[in-house]
Write the structure tokens for this entry.
Amino acid sequence: MQEPAKSRQSALILAGNLVSKLMSMAALIVVSRTMGSSTIGLIVGAYALVGLFRFVFDAGLPTAHIKRISEGIDPAACLGAFIRLKLIATAAGLGVVALAIPIYLALPDANSDRLFLPVVIIVLAVRCINSMAQVPHATFTGTGRIAKKQMVQLVQSASDCLFVLAVALFVRDIVWLAATHLASEIVAGIVAWRLFKGYSVEKPDREQIRWYLKFSLPLIGSTVTESIYAHVDRLMILSFISAAAVGYYHMAWRVVFFVLMVPQSVSTILMPAASRYLASNQQAESARIMIKAERYLSLVIAPLCAGMAIFAYETMSIFGPDFTAGAPVLSILAAVCFLYSINRPAATMLLSLGRPGTILRMTVVLVTMNIVFNCLLIPQAIFGVTVAGLGSVGAAMSTLFVSIVGWWVTKSIVQRATGARTSLLIAIPPLAAVACGLVARALASLFLPTAFSPVLFAMVGCAILLFLYLSTLFLLGQLRHSDITYVAAAIHPMKLLADIKEDLSDHRTSSSVSGEAVL
């Protein structure tokens, strides 16, 4: 598969993610303005509690399945092992969380809202359904059927948006709001399994199960630490500060997630491709696509992150006055977003190298650092010892510190393993974006006062930022004609449509797809 075709798959994922995020963001804006930050914070807290045990539901199995099936192994044999192990993992996750809920509620700092328990139970049901839906999702990714994967995501986002808007506008009840997520997960699950019906499944043999366990078990350790890393800050803010603080902290993250769909889209295609190159001893080729992905991600992400940081107050005001307190959080998380984005190709390469033990050790260290920083920065006091008491800002600072260390460690490991050395030129886009952003804010203030319309002010400022940024990169020689041609080929509408039709058709068998180079 040629590179324009590879990039079109990333563009297809990005387009699907963009539409999904836009629908989700529209619903969130309505919820934030009608039900307030405390409502969002309580639901987020429930997701954080259940999310702490994501490692049991996940168990590293989807990653193992994508790697296995993208290497050309018989899909039917792989699916037999994957489905059996996912059933066991889902049942185990249900049992573990059911035991953990009363333990958490008995803690002295646990949230005492009477609605917290029913919301947690609903979220647990969502997690169970989502766990089994990973079977078709991971299979679609591993076999290159990206359009099917994106269709499921779009159906889920559309149904979730409709359900959430109905509750936010007419019911305004937190339990019903949580139930909308369950309803949309059921709808998406039905669609995913319907599209999955063309795949055959064989009775699993011991060798396949043994391989899945051998690869995924070390990943469980990293998934444990990743689950803690992703959710412990929200639980600590909920326990030590307030549900409202969790609400605006989470909304700042949702803005960041909107941008992170770009590196995540690239990563979805990069892992199967890197696995195939490495399996055929083409390390130089795998290193080349990693460096190229880093460069394009830096070019695209830099102005988005600069805009988030410099226009943070105006961005958070979209969700209502309750959420502008999250502006400092968003400014810090913008730096986290950029580091995560440019680190994503290297992190994906580390997975493709098949070194889960290394990932486990690295993740344990980083998450331990994150927990320590959170304990020092979030609460006013812990175990009777007075600490920083920075609340949600402290949580964002902790994430930034750990992201810097994680980026450096990941790059060092991948460089030693593959020889892929990142160019220092990757620093030019973020420096240019920040400088242009500061100038853009000053120029925007000359034409439109912030108090008149914060959102309009931010839009004008970001438009100026983008113009200045592209002009600067062109003058510095960092934006070339070949870059424009490459991006144009990636987003060619007719070729994208042809790819979608091919993916959704049943002319390609699962086995034939699995033998292709996905990227």
Summary: The radius of gyration is 23 Å. DSSP finds 19 helices and two strands in the chain. Confidence is low (pLDDT under 50) at residues 507-519. The longest strand covers residues 381-382.
